[in-house]
């Protein structure tokens, strides 16, 4: 019998941590204890003991969740009275509000709404292969995913600095003044991409695993997840983003939307790798087509493509089987290598997107124990395990970083180590 996974912070619905300051954290914790104790002194249970909260904080939580006021009214019949200060919620009701709003319970005990923001990411890869508009708002799921990954990156940066790990020296090692051939040759050499890799794999899943290992061995942490943390009710939307990179000389990170198709994940991985080799946070409009072009050339080399095209011209189904990449990549390669023109390329994209919209998207589910090391980042897990073993990281802190605890944590660490 497979044991039920043990999640850390399950009461907060796998919400992302928010930095509110140590004093406020201590204050909220003490307030929680005081209200619970008062209830116990009066013989009240958690379902009866009332909590005096700031209505402004409650309103902030509602807005932060992005669920909308109507959803909260339907879920909590007294929410309008709480907002007006006419009555107070019980501890149990407030716990339910925290879960529904995707925030830790203690944040509702703050004296004032926290002033938080999510640093915008300039290099999202989206379904239409254009950069994500940084003028728009992120969904709550994407926002919390960014927070989770940034927190892991910050811990890893500090840990690697403290333990004298060398910087990842290829970050920022290419520029647009270099020729495509020079860039492709440089990245191929750094990542040690074998020339004959296509003959070594029978399917796209094994190809993806190989490339993730290859990228992580170079010093980049890779996370693949189709949900927020381990919360299967909070799915990530491929229409919003397919992946992103967080540039850092010590702890570079790539996140791939696991709800996407496997072939698309492979391309996203290489697309984000090119962003890291560019080493730029604020990227201009030329970055997306540039990264697409280089990623396509890395996965579909010109000589191999020309030979395959001779045997199967315009037969993208056969080309997909050989190259083990999505047909979008093959369209881009055909355009790059002048097999088709811009008009043909645009028509192919339109047909693909019409077909894609009818296909069921991967839910990001599957065998928990098999996918957890990729959700938590296999390379990242190894650093966490190392830190726990050398005493620089407590198990409690490790559980919070990975999002699981107890035996589940031990199983994830073991699978990450095995590869």
Question: What's the gist of this structure?
Answer:
With 419 residues, the chain is mostly helical.
Secondary-structure blueprint:
Layout: H1 22-41, H2 55-65, H3 69-75, H4 79-84, H5 91-101, H6 140-162, H7 180-191, H8 204-217, E1 221-225, E2 227-228, E3 231-235, E4 243-246, E5 253-257, H9 262-278, H10 287-299, H11 302-311, H12 316-323, H13 327-336, H14 342-356, H15 368-375, H16 378-389, H17 395-402, H18 406-418
Parallel strand pairs: 1-5
Antiparallel strand pairs: 2-3, 4-5
Provide a descriptive summary of the structure in words.
The model is unreliable at 1-5, 9-14, 130-135 and 360-364 (pLDDT under 50). A three-stranded mixed beta sheet has the order 1-5-4, sandwiched between helices. Strands 2-3 form a two-stranded antiparallel sheet. The chain is mainly α and 419 residues long. The protein folds into three domains: 20-109, no CATH class; 140-356, no CATH class; 371-418, no CATH class. The chain has helices at residues 22-41, 55-65, 69-75, 79-84, 91-101, 140-162, 180-191, 204-217, 262-278, 287-299, 302-311, 316-323, 327-336, 342-356, 368-375, 378-389, 395-402, 406-418, and strands spanning 221-225, 227-228, 231-235, 243-246, 253-257. The protein is globular, with a radius of gyration of 24 Å. The protein starts with 21 loop residues before the first helix and ends with a helix.
Unreliable stretches, pLDDT < 50, 5 or more residues? Answer: 1-5, 9-14, 130-135, 360-364
Mean of the pLDDT scores?
82
Query: How many strand segments?
Result: 5
N- and C-termini, Cα separation: 23 Å
Oligomeric state: single chain
Strand content: 5-15%
The number of distinct helices, counting runs of at least 4 residues, comes to: 18
- What count of structural domains? 3
Order of strands in the sheet with the most strands?
1-5-4
Helix and strand sequence:
HHHHHHHHEEEEEHHHHHHHHHH
